[in-house]
Amino acid sequence: MTDQDTSLFQMTLLHRAAAVEALLTDLLSDQPQDGEISRPPRLMAAMRHGVLNGGKRLRPFLVMESAALFGAGTPAALRVAAALECIHSYSLVHDDLPAMDNDDMRRGQPTVHRKFDEAAAILAGDSLLTYAFELIAAEATELDPGAKVALVTALARAAGIGGMTGGQALDLEAEKVKPDEAGIIRLQAMKTGALIRFACEAGAMIGNANPEDRERLAEYGSAIGLAFQLADDLLDVTADAAHMGKATGKDAAAGKATLVSLHGIDWTKRQLSGLVAQAEELLAPFGEKAALLKQAARFIAERQS
User: Fold this and answer.
1) How many other C-beta atoms can be found within 10 angstroms of the C-beta atom of residue 172?
2) What domains can you pick out in the chain, each with its CATH number?
3) Among 1, 134, 181, 221, which residue's Cβ finds the most Cβ atoms within 10 Å?
4) Residues 112, 179: contact at Cβ < 8 Å?
5) Where is the signal peptide (predicted)?
């Protein structure tokens, strides 16, 4: 990736993040919406703390760029992207709880249960989860009803039993009984990869892509989803907490099996390079239109936080 390519990617990532941030700020105001009786201020404050905290908004970026690949860089794509960020943020709020990963810091700030309390964190997560589906289904999301149903179904599957929450359950089990390599890959494909795969496939769905192209984007999402988790595990071993904005070294302390712990740092770096090449090959038929998505794959593999 040239310096010019990196600059364009970083600028676009920031632009997409700012658009999502602005929409979420508006959506999570204290003002009740049509059909709502009220919005408890403390609950809303906890929700905002869990979402509006400076994340990269990578998953929303993937939704919007994948949609743009098919000529659908629309407000609807932005709303679906915001919905996905609500799901992702809820998962972090709940993962940080004492009963789960028991983290005190997230993105350099106190986690929601530390800033407020455990009950507020649970309710904030619950509210973000349910609000995500409302955002997609709402009249303001200008998509055909069939597209909305397909997106809601796909997101529910990615976030649910066979996806993210199922992966978190496997992750907790892995602290007691170490999985083998196949088990680790399955766990990571569910816990981390499922929402990233959805992000890329959702863009194709919004853009009414043909089945072959939709599957191509989904497979691209699977490749970069695995790369994201590998990079995360690598950073847990090599980065410091101040740079990451959260605790590091927790996998080793918990005795948790990861691909990094099984195969080492050099093997992991080779795997990351291979996954980037796989992602770029999947996007090759789209030519220069997919340049930013190709750069996203490299950014994910080489990220430092």
Assistant:
1) 12
2) 3-302 (1.10.600.10)
3) 221
4) no
5) none
